[in-house]
Amino acid sequence: MTQSTVAYWEPLWASGRRYRKITDPERQLLAEHLGPGHSRPALDIGCGDGLLAHHLHDPLGYRSTGIDCAPSAIALADTGHRGDGQPHFQVMDFATDDLSELPDPAYAVITCRLAYKFFTDKAAFLDRVRQLLVPGGIFWVVTELANRRDANDPLQRLGITSHDLEVLTSGWSTVTTVDLDLLACFALRP
Question: What is the mean pLDDT of residues 140-147?
Answer without folding.
Answer: 92
